[in-house]
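Collaborator request log, item 7. Partner lab (contact: R.S.) asked for a structural prediction of Acetylglutamate kinase to inform their binding assays.
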Amino acid sequence: MHTINAEEVTPEQKVRIFLEALPYVQKFRDSIFVIKYGGAAMEAPFLVERTLRDIVLLEAVGIHPLIIHGGGEAINKAMKSQGMRPKFVNGIRVTDKDLIALIEKVLCKEIGPFIAQKIIEYGAKAVFIPGYEVFSAVKWQAFSSQGYPIDYGYVGSIVAADIHPLLKLLHNQFIVVVSPLAKGENGEIYNVNADIAASKMAKFIKAKKLIYLTNTSGILADEKNPNSTISVVDKRRIDALKKKELFMEA
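Returned to partner:
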């Protein structure tokens, strides 16, 4: 398959693309899109540029993007460099005090500011906000299949978000970048699942779209066929898929 570069697109093709996109631009102008940014789109330099330029374009046509970013491989690399060995229970990583400090450093000192700076370089206004300044959480209560409690350490379950500062920034043409961290009632920092953080944010801020950029296949029409991804769903279709038991709530 031949990939068309921007330089290869003729003026006529550009006009046609714009005309095809125009109804969607008009429909979603001044809407908030929550984008979960992770996977290969955060790792490969050419994908980083392409993805962030596309997000800048969304803002340029009047859409308000809010990014919840993942940790990518950066956390794993940082753990390895520090000689830290991950501990898993039932396939889920345990986050102890040393690890949450490392995660906070990687997310809030490296990845988040990097994304915001790149967006600025590509011509838009951007601001990074640590997730613990936005999300409130309680300690995640997990149980084994036998009903015994499992302590995953500093892993949180989001219960609220302070969206008012975010709304002000978004409507002043800032692209907002938020890390998947949350604060507990006693000031402790919790690691939270970035996919869940994005869905919670979309609900709290009443986003028109929730977009996942990820390596995983997503919702499959046929679980045995990785190419059967259902790219776009709304609440009505989700309810229908649940009835067909194609997926269950996570």
